[in-house]
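Reminder to self: keep the SMILES exactly as supplied, no canonicalising. Ligand is S-adenosylmethionine.
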Amino acid sequence: MGNYTFACIMVSAQIDVTGLINAGFDTCEKLSNKLQLSRKGMELFVLVLRHLGYISLENNQLRNTDLAKQFLNKNSPYYWGEVLLDPFGIYNVNHLDKKILTSLKLEYELECKGHSVTDMWQHDEMDNDSAAAFTHLMHSQGFASAVSAVQHGAFNDVSTLLDAGAGSGTIALAFCDAYPKRKALLFDLAPVCITAKEYIARFNKEEQIGIVKGDFFKHDWPKGCDGICLSNVLHDWKPDTCSELLGKAFTALPSGGSIFIHDMLFDETSLTPGLFSFHLFMNHGSQLFSATELSQLLENAGFRNPLQHQALGYFAVISATKP
Ligand SMILES: C[S@@+](CC[C@H](N)C(=O)[O-])C[C@H]1O[C@@H](n2cnc3c(N)ncnc32)[C@H](O)[C@@H]1O
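Structure tokens returned for the bound complex:
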């Protein structure tokens, strides 16, 4: 039955149940009339959403719970629609079994317009539309944890933060919001920077956040920052490539500067969150790391004093310092 759970949330995003309840369509009858859908079906569908914690019933009226307000409301900064509307067809249950088998044979297969996303990243070949779709999706998935990481103080001692492989700049946006006098730089492939610029404008952070277009494999990394964050980046690559990226970060930082890895962590048994790690394998041939594995990668790159900071859910930040 697990397949239904995610599919029901996807459909809820498609027909915007949260927005309709907000707009006053707060009974099953009103919802089914508005959407021209089966009344009986709507009652059972709403029951599923109530069980999942997105809707509550008060005095016979449907109410959006805090969970729905945070993640299913189009106006929330943490709206998950970009994931749930599934622009890459990742969660399409009709082909998930084939995708799993193909991935087990080929190692990775997340494709955009017939090309592997990982290949496009490695050879700087991503087109603007694919970059925008992927960047919106990542923002949806990661911004809430970026805010949480900043709120938990992971970046307290940083004055200028380089968000490398920044995407929309989730970490830089949260950082600059919490510390209005500090600055950040986003570093990503040119097509991604077009979308990043839109996020900087949306958050009114033009004064604090700059953008450097570049390929983090081939180009020199921007210098002059005392902190570098790799948010949801290392999980896209195999360990050798991660070591290469950490070496570049080490070179770009001054002595005393810090590296920050914001990512979901495997627990020390490498059992949880196993599905997300398998998802990464299917998309990129990559994996999650545990805190111990990340600390080891950081120490091998020359960093010292690895520390773990809290973020949201399975996410955490591992920081370390360049001696
Ligand atoms: C999974 S996304 C993470 C985005 C963002 N940091 C976040 O947490 O939402 C990985 C990012 O790495 C960037 N990236 C991949 N290959 C790159 C390259 N060769 N040079 C620079 N950035 C790259 C991608 O464009 C993408 O924005």
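Points to follow up:
The two ends are 52 Å apart (CA to CA).
The first helix runs from residue 2 to 15.
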